[in-house]
């Protein structure tokens, strides 16, 4: 009987992720029946209502207190609520991404999406060698590789799949149809990115994810470990690195910004300084977040403090 109970329990553990993925897919399918603007605004309101009831809300407020000690509690709560709203919008934007991305340089007037740095997009497209584009979890960062495809850029994007394997497959299929080549983040992902750069292609990387073992850096003046992968790839291939971000505008509009290539820090020997480069990435992300703090995902445990005594004793 004990063996039977264990097998039943194991099967139930497999069924639950499948059921959850199907439930999410069903919800998104229903959402698609609504007009896009109504759905985006609706998901914003729902996320603002449900978000503060989640455990991650404490993480948000803790991160905000350490990042903005000069702010009042009311100001930090407003940023947290804006961040929840941004996440709600992003869930709806998955459904409407094909309709939302309407950028057309030949069209008169403004659509939903405007692009800043078009000459840089064309510069990258015409490069005869490898390049790296990096971004952060700001606004709808998923639009950036879609824009790259629109400009004819060949970019291999590194992404972290969800722990739920069925949701991971669903999201991968959705992204692959719109964003080109994708590389799941795992032990061998660095080799896949290196092969793309060896072929003279481009690589897209999110640089603001938690990384327990990495370069010693700071973010908002607080010590943090940063993944050195991008810096090591630059050291190996000596390729240009371009910052890019998405910004939410009023009325469900977006601005995609591509910035000039960074001046990569180097040692006296001329070799790329990995730690200084990792810090430069953090400084860029911090600049973006300070400008639009409510558009960053503050619920991430970026500083790896979830199990610290200070966090456990923190009372929002």
Could you characterize the architecture of this molecule?
- There is one protein chain.
- The protein has helices at 2-31, 36-50, 56-67, 73-100, 118-125, 143-150, 165-179, 189-198, 229-237, 274-291, 309-312; strands at residues 113-116, 131-135, 155-159, 182-184, 202-206, 215-219, 222-226, 241-249, 253-258.
- A hairpin with a 2-residue loop joins strand 6 (215-219) and strand 7.
- It folds into two domains: 2-96, no CATH class; 114-295, no CATH class.
- The protein contains eleven helices and nine strands.
- It is of the alpha/beta class.
- The longest helix has 30 residues, at 2-31.
- 50% of the residues lie in helices and 15% in strands.
What's this model, at a glance?
The longest helix has 30 residues, at 2-31. With 316 residues, the protein is α/β, with parallel strands linked by helices. 50% of the residues lie in helices and 15% in strands.
What is this structure's SSE topology?
Blueprint: H1 2-31, H2 36-50, H3 56-67, H4 73-100, E1 113-116, H5 118-125, E2 131-135, H6 143-150, E3 155-159, H7 165-179, E4 182-184, H8 189-198, E5 202-206, E6 215-219, E7 222-226, H9 229-237, E8 241-249, E9 253-258, H10 274-291, H11 309-312
> Unreliable runs, pLDDT <50, ≥5 residues?
none
Structural class, judged by helices and strands? alpha/beta
Percent helix range: 40-55%
What integer value in Å does the Rg equal?
Answer: 21 Å
Strand arrangement within the widest β-sheet reads 1-9-8-2-5-3-4
- Overall structural domain count: 2
The major sheet is characterized as: 7 strands, mixed
Count the beta strands: 9
Shape: globular
For the terminal residues, how far apart are their CA atoms? Answer: 47 Å
Order of helices and strands: HHHHEHEHEHEHEEEHEEHH
Assess the beta-strand content as a share of residues: 5-15%
The DSSP helix count reads 11
Overall residue-averaged pLDDT value:
85
Subcellular location: Cell inner membrane
InterPro entries: LipA_acyltrans
Organism: Rhizobium aquaticum
EC number: 2.3.1.241
